[in-house]
Design goal:
The complex is a heterodimer of chains A (about 80) and B (about 400). By secondary structure, chain A is mostly beta strands. Helix content of chain A is about 0%, strand content about 75%. Chain A is built from no helices and 8 strands. Helix content of chain B is about 40%, strand content about 20%. In chain B, helix 11 crosses helix 12. Classes of the chains: A mainly beta (about 80), B alpha+beta (about 400).
């Protein structure tokens, strides 16, 4: 398990409603297709409510975090499966 | 300092492991049964539970509820292997992991919160790793103590996460039925009901002297449970007290009556007890034989031995001696052999040549069985016995140490 804090580009489906579904992300110039969202939860940090996603591609588990205020995504964790 | 305790409970563990290892079982009502002939439902998948199939049902009862139910014989080795892997995942977040059973554990996260970004994140990390690696789900409870963490994990199943914060404890317990608390069984519940206590709120406010008068020393503990108080620590395996007994029991495929048949089972049990005792360097001065008759009447007889027993044949002879002192009045359904008054010691230096030879022979046999599996070398009279070895995961099972009972 490796903790990382890194800005990251994520492809997302918005909706229906206020739902967010990450579909792919770029890491080290490689596009990773998301196979499964294993968990999603919200965490309040100060005035911001961050949305955390645990997702898997074909080889690892990742934690992607979305900040709705800044509109930025961060990669917080990688674990090779 | 407030403690933060997590209780993780694997959902329909045996059934889920089977569904993951055999994709053909996924999404269908299925249940795991014991591997012996006289067996019951050990675990039912959530699809089977929807039909009313429950743990503990006979196969006939289960099939009546769900005619299309698929049954799978338990693969205990697989379950204990997966359980050991899951415990390793828990230990990534804290060294304070108490194994409650093969599919449940308590974690004391009080010292790990800063490191991993809080208890909820740890819970989601564990859930995601279990789902991604093994396809398994668990229900997690987070609370200030073990009692409440266990209660919290029961609140949302499957795949739940429930947090009970200290300020919500009183509100949650006020209307909660006392039977929902781990440690209050049906008998205690009935007695409490007779005292007019039905909810945890009522239990917490009840007179402690009256509870003590009725339940003895447990009375005070019951009152604490009603208030949601529990200061028991999370005890990792290495801090568990030394085991006091080493034993095995076996429910037989059919009831038996002859001395020869009973002796053959005792030989098998003596080998299992002896192997485990020798592996962990213990001998026992007291040997107990347990017998359950066909009508479920159960009794035990014990004898203190002149010397501490460790070799299988010594244990067998002592068990046989007890058997021969009994007059059995019914066919036998279950037999058990247990060593107690244990002595932990390093290898003994035996002075008598014959004793040394016997010990060397036992060690050689153990080495062969260590290498090629239990009962690879055995007494000739066991050759024709089918299904030798333990077929049940004991509640005291641990992934390592003397409580690690090899299962089939």
């Amino acid at each position: 398990m490796q903790e990382v804090i890194d800005g990251i580009r994520v492809g997302v489906i918005h909706g229906p409603g206020n739902r967010l579904t990450p579909v792919w992300f770029d890491l080290h110039r490689r596009k990773h297709s998301i196979r499964q969202i294993t968990n999603c939860w919200r965490e309040r940090r100060g005035a911001t409510e961050l949305i955390h996603f645990h997702v898997t591609d074909d080889g690892a588990l990742y934690e992607l975090t979305y900040n709705p205020v800044s509109g930025c995504w961060q990669l917080e964790l990688v674990e090779v499966l | 300092m407030n403690r933060v305790i997590m209780h993780a409970d694997m959902n329909a563990f045996f059934a889920s492991v089977e569904q993951q290892s055999n994709p053909g079982l996924r999404g269908v009502p299925m249940a795991v049964t014991g591997s012996q002939q006289r067996t019951i439902i050990l675990a039912a998948s959530y699809e089977a539970r929807a039909f009313g199939v429950k743990t503990g049902m006979t196969l006939a009862e289960a099939r009546q509820k769900c005619p299309q139910l698929q049954l799978v014989a338990a693969n205990n080795r697989l379950y204990t292997h997966v359980s050991a892997q899951i415990i390793k995942i828990f230990q990534d977040y804290t060294p304070l992991v108490e194994i409650f059973s093969v599919d449940e554990a308590f974690l004391d996260l009080s010292g790990s919160l800063q490191l991993f970004g809080g208890a909820e994140r740890i819970a989601y990390l564990i859930k995601s790793r279990l789902k991604a690696r093994y396809g398994l789900t668990c229900s997690i409870g987070i609370a200030p103590n073990k009692l409440l963490a266990k209660l919290a994990s029961e609140m949302k199943k499957p795949d739940g996460l429930t947090v009970i914060t200290p300020e919500r404890v009183a509100e949650i317990l006020e209307e909660l039925p006392i039977g929902a608390i781990c440690g209050i069984g049906r008998k205690t519940e009935t007695v409490l009901n007779r005292l007019g206590i039905f909810t945890c709120g009522q239990l917490g406010r009840f007179s402690v002297p009256r509870l003590k008068a009725r339940f003895g020393i447990i009375g005070e503990r019951l009152a604490m449970m009603g208030r949601g108080s529990d200061d028991s620590p999370v005890v990792p395996p290495e801090q568990e007290p030394e085991v006091k007994t080493v034993g095995h029991s076996m429910t037989l495929p059919r009831d038996i009556s002859t001395r020869e048949e009973i002796a053959r089972i005792l030989l098998q049990l003596a080998e299992m007890v002896g192997r485990r005792a020798r592996r962990y360097g213990v001998t026992g001065r007291t040997l107990t034989l347990t017998i359950r008759y066909a009508d479920f009447t159960t009794f035990s007889r014990q004898q203190v031995q002149a010397i501490a027993l460790g070799r299988s044949e010594e244990i067998y002879r002592a068990a046989l001696k007890i058997l021969d002192s009994l007059l059995l009045t019914q066919p036998v359904r279950l037999l058990g052999v247990r060593l107690s008054s244990l002595q932990y010691h390093e290898r003994q230096l035996l002075l008598l040549f014959e004793e040394r030879r016997r010990q060397q022979l036992t060690e050689s046999l153990d080495q062969v069985n260590d290498r090629y599996g239990e009962f690879s070398v055995m007494s000739a009279s066991l050759l024709r016995v089918k299904g030798k070895g333990s077929h049940v995961i004991s509640p005291a099972w641990r992934p390592e140490g003397i409580r690690n009972v090899g299962v089939r």
